[in-house]
Amino acid sequence: MTPPQRQRRRPEPPPPPPPSPRQQPAAAGQEEEPKKPERLYTITGTDGDRAQLDLVTLIVARADPPSSATPEETAVLRLCAGPLSVAELSAYLRLPFSAMTVLLTDMLAAGTVHARAPIVRQTLPDRSLLEAVMHGLERL
């Protein structure tokens, strides 16, 4: 005689939450719209010439935010009291790099920020430093 086998109970998945009033289910055959494209367009405006910025270009604010500045421009000016790279600004504001370059291009044209190349360190250390280290090691 074999003992009866136990069957595991599988919990039922919880019912989905009801849709909020702002979210309406898509009709059959229609795809849902992306979440932020219209917001990115309002930030960047029309697509024009862009400044030559890369991820490590440093941005520094030249003045306090004017009252006519958009929220994104105000955030950039407040963050850039000290130099910040374009990659850091993009991450802090949660904007794609392309949208950030368009925003910064407009701010550079207005003169509210200044862009500069990153500080490049020397490839070789100073010769006097190497000699001092060598003499120090010889004394040991």
Automatic annotation (TrEMBL):
Pfam families: DUF742. Coiled coil: none annotated. Residues 1-48 are annotated as: Disordered. It comes from the Bacteria. Residues 13-22 have a biased composition (Pro residues). This is DUF742 domain-containing protein. It comes from Streptomyces griseosporeus. The lineage of its organism: Bacteria, Bacillati, Actinomycetota, Actinomycetes, Kitasatosporales.
